[in-house]
Write a structure and sequence with these properties.
Layout lengths: L4 E2 L1 H8 L3 H10 L5 E4 L2 E5 H10 L17
Antiparallel strand pairs: 1-3, 2-3
Helix pairs in contact: 1-2
């Protein structure tokens, strides 16, 4: 069975984010792995699902500490 490919609007809907957020993620190297098919950006559903799986935090000690800026 061939892995389904998805366009950015489909991935954004699947992740419940805006397409602009997904585009920003691509620029900074964050988010699911994507590839170019001609002039079109595509994602494999398996890559999106794997990325989601890797985002899971099993306990709070794995959560990065966020420092507040100066007041």
């Amino acid at each position: 069975m061939e892995d389904e490919t998805m366009l950015p609007p489909q991935v954004a809907s699947y992740l419940k984010i805006k397409t602009q957020t997904l585009a920003k993620w691509r620029l900074i190297g964050y988010g699911p792995v994507y590839f170019n098919a001609g002039r079109s950006i595509r994602y494999r559903r398996s890559a999106v699902d794997e990325w989601i799986k890797n985002q899971q935090i099993s306990n709070t000690s794995m959560n990065p500490i966020r420092r507040q800026g100066r007041p």
